[in-house]
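Listing S7. Sequence submitted for prediction.
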Amino acid sequence: MYLTLFFIFAILSISAYMINLNQANDFKQYVNYQIERGGGLNSASMKKVNEYNQKYYRGKFKVTSLSGNAKMPFGEEVSYKITGNYEFFFITLPVQQINTNGTAVSLIR
């Protein structure tokens, strides 16, 4: 009985972790869009990304630019890193860090 409950809770926790990975990929897609439309991960793009992060993910993710925060010319590649933390609900494991690297191309002329 207890073993069955443990496995059910473990499966639920792993499923929730996979949902968080999917959310990180959705957030990455939004960051890519802002980089393409804003010409890089500049202050205007970061403002939109942070507002979106607060509104839909309650500030779960943090975006760090690896290519600087200036406006990039057309066709320039912008690299960035998204980090977030996930705590398992029913299993006492350390906080897992979700890391996603991404690149997007500036489409502003």
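Caption to Listing S7: primary sequence and predicted structure tokens for the chain studied. The mean pLDDT is 90. Residues 2-105 form one domain.
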